[in-house]
Amino acid sequence: MVIGVKGMQKVIYGEQLDMGILVNNGRVAYPAAMFFHVFEEEVWKNVMKVNVIGTGLVTRVVIGGMVDRKRCVIVNIGLGPTIDVPSPLFYAIYDAIKA
Questions:
Q1: Does the keyword Hydrolase apply (predicted)?
Q2: Which domain holds residue 38?
Q3: Residue 79 pLDDT class (50, 70, 90 cuts)
């Protein structure tokens, strides 16, 4: 089992894995559709930690080797509505951007 970014880096470089494709699909959703100013700061921090920082860290681990091998495809799958949303208007702009 790989634990954390440093552990992942050790496995990738230690095993000399030939990675050409990275799919970033890790995500944390808000507990419900709500306005930004309503949910607790800890919820926001957790979402940012996984969805933004985690994605960036994983990409940094593999991108150097991918560029060196001239084979580099990175797919970032964004967070969409994964819960029963009481009002589709909360996600309308987000979904339009991701389309």
A1: no
A2: 19-98
A3: low
